[in-house]
Design goal:
The structure holds two protein chains of two kinds. Chain A is an alpha/beta fold. Chain A has two domains: about 35-95, Alpha-Beta Plaits (2-Layer Sandwich); about 125-270, 3-Layer(aba) Sandwich (Rossmann fold). Chain A is built from nine helices and ten strands. In chain A, strand 8 (about 180), helix 6 (about 190-200) and strand 9 (about 205-210) form a beta-alpha-beta unit. The longest helix of chain A has 18 residues, at about 245-265. Chain A is globular and about 70 Å long. By secondary structure, chain B is α+β, with helices and mostly antiparallel strands. Chain B has three domains: about 5-130, NADH:ubiquinone oxidoreductase Nqo5 subunit (Beta Polymerase, domain 2); about 160-195, no CATH class; about 200-505, Cytochrome-c3 Hydrogenase, chain B (Orthogonal Bundle). Chain B is built from 18 helices and 14 strands. In chain B, strands 1-4-3-2 form a four-stranded mixed β-sheet. In chain B, strands 7-8-9 form a three-stranded antiparallel β-sheet. A three-stranded antiparallel β-sheet of chain B has the order 12-13-14. Chain B is globular and about 60 Å long. The chains are: A alpha/beta, B alpha+beta.
Chain lengths: ~270, ~525
């Protein structure tokens, strides 16, 4: 069918470029997007109802009852706190790039209202040079609801198209520089997860994806699972979200590269520029 | 839900009495509580369970789920409840309370093959023993404490037969499961699938929690069936509390459910292309799915529609700015999907891989209690949106889609056509979503011990939720029977006779969630 073949080849040419310019450009958000909750301390009257309503105990109150901190690693961005607050002191913000290398960094007092873009337009070149022109990622489901996994898969669609950054997913942990782990770490997967990590060549990086992998998320406290993956594999970067959107995953991957070089000189040494 | 007719209940009672040879206790016959409006409830002895099921099967009833649970002081007594659906009739709940100290009842799997995993799960999680079960190996618990026998895969033996173990960690962004192929050359003789790697203990975790506390957990049984599970849960709570959600919420739930079906179907069509290695389709349809996820976010603030449906209506109202233009955007995406599918269907190289592959016969689909797309591609008509319409579906016509060949191609076609139906429903509803409140308070407290039973048709079929109320508006016991859980045994059953490298394609044509299954 030559006509069909021609049509098939021409179809993609008809459309404008679909691909995102993230991280050079800001993530594409909607009006309704639920990012990190923001607090207006002036309105907070210390009722504590937000902490009461939070399904993952992400809100820490001070002695006065006012919010001391919100743990992005526990937050599932459900807006229960916003609904519960009688004074309207809380709102769902638009900050979605929340990755951090330190677990404690995720617990922020009064999260800032505006996104601080941690990476600039030089990112692409950095990735290319630092990781020897490529970062190979192995995805590992350690007992997730599948939400984070679909966002990982979305990195490969024509919009997010992570390959444009020199990053790609590989089939075997033996080919991977980085392990992208989703899920709470269920009992049934512990051994498989440990062995996947051990199969990776050194130096290796681990990114914990989503509330479950960081803190257990809504499944925290289940006897069938651990509260996060940190007890089984060492984590280099935590990326909050339920699930984290693809841009947040890209930010986390780039951050992991950054940190991998700073904290482990052998990463840079092993891959001369 | 069709209103129960008194005569149905009476004649059913008679039939069951005949089958059992002795009267069912009058107190246990029929409806036990108005909260369970319409459900038939029978309390049986272990010996009566089989004959009662056979009598119901004689009326055309099919297996929905078997729930194991503990009751009495500290849950020390055990019980099982078999739920069956009578076509155009009520749901029947057959409860067997097991005597103290003897957690055994005669297995129903030989009578109801679809109950095979339900019984094994009840054994693993509650210690209830289905005596005479043909496959009593552990299912959910992978490391059973001795003296329980550890899991051993079923394999075929013979000259030239070899075993191919695959997983639980797979070569892609896929969920974990272990597949043990017994093969000769490239042909599969037998497949033993071992799942439940992502078992998070969801049902145990929600016990003792309030409905509001349990909602985000139940919703996250699966990240891409969130509306389905949240809706089934909400309906179960609403039945327990005799709550009727307001018109806006009832129709919005349909809108959300169809958005969920649409983005799943479009993505799954793309994944079938990935199973063939046809990147054109994967990439083009992946882009359309991304556009749909963006619409989801504009509508609800969440790409996977989490945190919206709740008992009493909706937790968060739909964003009006997301509703504006939704119909036009969905129409355009549906048009794109249709033109991509048209190209795929005309590609002989692509379709040749799909035809005749992974055939699920109508009889086998019926025997195993297969649901959703897989059932409709094998000539079965089941669809909760039509059979037991709830919420806005009661006032809507949902076109029936079907195919009869039961192969990968049939499942591909059914998905493509259902996507068009979903798009049409979205366009219709987006233009006429009534104003008004998005939710109402629950009308009353649930009576402790009462059971709310509700289903929702998701992208993979009917998801059922069995919810027993505890004290103070808390949950005593919850059981979530997802469509994926019901369909998994069918995947393993259709693979023998096909080639090992065709397994990913067959698997993708069913596109079941492991997370939904494992919970």
């Amino acid at each position: 069918m030559p006509l069909d073949l021609v049509r098939r080849l021409l179809t993609p040419l008809r459309d404008p470029v679909a691909t995102s310019r993230y991280p050079e450009a800001a993530p594409l958000l909607q009006f309704a997007t639920r990012g990190m909750p923001e607090i207006d301390p002036a309105l907070c009257d210390g009722s504590g109802e937000c902490a009461e309503a939070c399904p993952t105990e992400a809100i820490e109150l001070g002695i006065s009852g006012a919010i001391r901190a919100i743990d992005a690693g526990r937050c599932i961005f459900c807006s229960a706190c916003v609904i519960a607050c009688p004074k309207g002191a809380l709102s769902m913000g638009s900050r979605v790039e929340l990755a951090a290398a330190d677990r404690t960094e995720l617990i922020k007092a009064a999260p800032p209202a505006t996104s601080v873009r941690p990476l600039d337009g030089q990112v692409r070149r950095q990735v290319l040079s630092r990781m020897g022109r490529s970062l190979h990622v192995r995805h590992l489901d350690a007992g997730s609801c599948n939400g984070c996994d679909w966002e990982c898969a979305a990195l490969l669609n024509p919009y997010h198209d992570i390959q444009r950054l020199g990053i790609d997913f590989v089939a075997s942990p033996r080919h991977a520089d980085l392990l992208l782990v989703t899920g709470v770490m269920t009992r049934n997967l512990e051994e498989a997860a440990r062995r996947t990590y051990e199969a990776m060549p050194e130096p290796r990086l681990v990114v914990a994806v989503g509330a479950c992998a960081i803190s257990g998320g809504v499944f925290a406290g289940s006897p069938e699972a651990r509260d996060g993956i940190a007890g089984v594999v060492p984590v280099d970067v935590f990326v909050p979200g339920c699930p984290p959107r693809p841009e947040a995953l890209i930010e986390a991957l780039l951050k992991a590269i950054e940190l991998g070089r700073a904290s482990r000189p052998e990463v840079a040494a092993a891959r001369p520029e | 839900m069709p209103k129960r007719q008194e005569s149905t209940s009476e004649s059913l009672g008679e039939k069951l009495n005949d089958a059992l040879g002795r009267p069912v206790p009058a107190s246990a016959r029929g409806v036990i509580d108005a909260a369970d409006d319409g459900d038939l409830f029978f309390a049986l002895t272990p010996a009566q369970l089989g004959p009662a099921i056979a009598a119901l099967q004689g009326l055309g009833a099919s297996h929905v789920m078997l729930v194991g649970f503990g009751f009495g002081k500290a849950g020390k007594r055990l019980a099982v409840e078999e739920v069956m659906a009578i076509p155009n009739g009520p749901l029947a709940r057959l409860r067997v309370e097991l005597p103290a100290g003897d957690p055994t009842y005669p297995s129903i799997t030989k009578l109801v093959p679809a109950a095979q995993w339900d019984e094994r799960e009840a054994h693993d999680l509650h210690g209830i023993v289905p005596a005479g079960h043909p496959d009593p190996r552990p299912l959910v618990v992978h490391d059973p404490a001795p003296p329980a026998a550890p899991f051993k895969p079923f394999v075929a033996h013979g000259d030239g037969v070899y075993q191919l173990p695959v997983g639980p960690i797979h070569a892609g962004i896929i969920e974990p499961g272990h597949f043990r192929f017994s093969a000769v050359g490239e042909s599969v003789l037998y497949l033993d699938a071992r799942l439940f790697y992502t078992h998070r203990g969801l049902e145990h975790l929600v016990e003792g929690r309030t409905f509001a506390e349990a909602l985000p957990i139940v919703e996250r049984a699966c990240g891409v069936c969130t509306v389905t599970h949240a809706t089934a849960f909400s309906r179960a709570v609403e039945r327990l509390t005799r709550t009727v959600p307001p018109p806006r919420a009832r129709l919005a739930r349909v809108l959300l459910a169809e958005m969920e079906r649409l983005y799943n179907h479009v993505g799954d069509l793309g994944n079938i292309c990935a199973g063939v290695g046809f990147n054109f389709g994967t990439s083009r349809l992946g882009w359309q799915k991304e556009r749909l996820l963006r619409l989801n976010e504009a509508l609800t603030g969440h790409r996977y529609l989490m945190g919206v449906v709740a008992p009493g209506g909706l937790r968060l109202d739909l964003d009006e700015r997301g509703l504006v233009g939704l119909g036009a955007a969905v129409t355009e995406i549906e048009h794109e999907v249709r033109s991509i599918v048209r190209l795929l269907v005309r590609s002989d190289g692509f379709m040749n891989r799909l035809h005749g592959l992974g055939v699920l016969s109508r009889a086998e689909a019926m025997r195993l209690g297969v649901l959703g797309v897989a059932a409709r591609a094998s000539g079965l008509a089941g669809d909760l949106r039509r059979d037991r319409p709830a919420d806005g579906y009661s006032d809507l016509q949902v076109a029936q889609i079907g195919a009869s060949t039961g192969d990968v191609a049939a499942r591909f076609h059914v998905r493509a056509q259902e996507a068009a139906v979903s798009a049409a429903l979205i366009v219709d509803i987006a233009g006429r979503l009534p104003a008004g409140p998005m939710s109402v308070a629950l009308a009353r407290e649930a009576r402790p011990g009462a059971v709310g039973l509700a289903g929702a048709e998701g992208p993979r079929g009917a998801s059922w939720l069995w919810l027993m109320a505890g004290l103070n508006g808390r949950i005593d016991r919850l059981h979530l029977r997802s469509a994926s859980f019901a369909n998994w045994p069918a995947v393993a059953s259709v693979v023998p006779g096909n080639l090992v490298p065709d397994f990913p394609l067959i698997n993708k044509s069913f596109e079941l969630c492991y997370a939904c299954t494992d919970r």
